[in-house]
Amino acid sequence: MYLQLDPRNISFLKFLLEAYDNLAYLTTVSSQSAVIKLVFAPEQEQEVREFLESVRDEIGFVEILMGGRDGY
User: Pfam families from the entry (predicted)?
Assistant: First the structure.
């Protein structure tokens, strides 16, 4: 799953994911455009989406839909 967000919020999101029992692994794909990739187990997708919805107002991000597997 790819997200784009304010670069100032990347560390905060990473902190929240770690505090949420390492729900997903976050890696920065492009620091210039502030695109990150979240990696998680397929069976956790619903939980990850619920978590993201719960922090959407605080962090402000958009999901980027990719055409291929790692098409970014």
Answer: DUF4911
